[in-house]
Amino acid sequence: MVSRLALFLVLALLPLSQGQAETVVLDLQQAVDRALQVDPRITEKERHVDLARAQLREVRGADGWSLNMNTFLGFAPKVRGGVFETTNADGTKSIGVASDAFDINGLSPWYYLEMRLVKPLHTFGKITHYSKAAAGNIQVKRGDIQLARAQTRMDIAKAYYGYLAARDSRRMLDDMLDKLQAALDLLQGWLDDDEGDAKQSNLFALQTGMALIRRYQAEAQGYERIALEGLRILTGVGSGNEVQVADKRLKPLPLPEGGLKELTAQAMTRRPEVRQLAAGLDARREYMLAKRSESLPNIYAGLAGSISYAPGRKDFTDVSIYDPFYFAGMTPVIGIKWDWNSGRQPAQVAQAKAQLDATLALRDKARMGIPFQVAGQYHTVHSHHEMVQRLYEGSRSGRRWLISVYADFEAGVEETDNLVAAFQGYMVAYGDYLKVVNAYNMHVERLRVVTGDIQ
Fold this sequence. Notes:
- By secondary structure, the chain is of the alpha+beta class.
- It has helices at 2-18, 28-38, 40-61, 126-193, 200-234, 260-270, 272-293, 344-410, 416-450; strands at 23-26, 66-77, 85-87, 93-95, 107-122, 242-245, 298-309, 327-337.
- Helices cover 63% and strands 14% of the residues.
- The strands form three sheets. Strands 2-5-7-8 form a four-stranded antiparallel sheet, with no helix packed on it.
């Protein structure tokens, strides 16, 4: 009986357990991988690539067969008699045109169809140049995807390292608050027992220090929650689930390898913007050539014909007689179609040339700007790396200072002012260390982006 009851409870609670919140533990790379799969900004850029591919198919499709057809149903006047023999209104027949030939003597349905099936034989470069321009546009849009992916990684890194920095700051403040509370309790005991040189002003000093710590503690908790929520949203974790980071504490990344000259050369070959500019130049050049070819004709071949049928009109067998309401014809054709405008087409070529010149100027700007960007980021990373080393040593010394002063304070041989100064010195040194490590890690990630290492 007990085993059946246990089985029933397990089966009853199983759906509830499946609906419970899930805790997802992620390191930086795992968070980036998840974000790359769900970031709508990347999806948007991918759809732009699909659009560019469809535009290329449209341009290439202009070289295929095309069918132009028009058909309608209308009305045509009926015809009495033949061409030379007519019937007058009184019923008598005569030779020549009847006196009421232009009077409507009833209506006949009129069925009309015209069609043209043609294929371009030679367009003087229009399709070729437009196709190359469209293919270059695809490469430009692909570069936008790489840029969006790099931005996603930077956003994840900002949330990830920002959370670690805020969490470590809050933990440090928690530890400082516990130590200050212990010092406050010890001082309060001395004041109650009237021991040593304890003063009421010392008590106020410690209470002031605790209030300041609680203030920074609340601020760190706010940053911690904001960063974690941003990380949860960016990685696509459901609203009912929680995210935890795998790193136990914030640590500085290794200093990137390679000198400035090597990294600059890498950026000039691997940056998505460089490949975008090359593809964009080709596309602009081909577009300009396509606009120039618009002033030239198109040679085509195909099949053309039309049918006009009104059953209330006489079918004339004489081929010299043409009735627009009653005929049929079809023939193979070869022709030239020429749309030329002396004012509009040169203006379009000038516009395309201006766009090409603007892209050339952008390329020259990139050739100057990218090396400067790499140099600035390179020196920033190295200066921050040096700052991290110095602050690490300073924070360790600050902790030793605090521990020694705190021990002397407990022994009753150290002033409260010195204890407060030690607390303040350690908090400033370690807090600045965490801030600089966070900035250094972000600069390392940015250096990888500007050198084309992250795409």
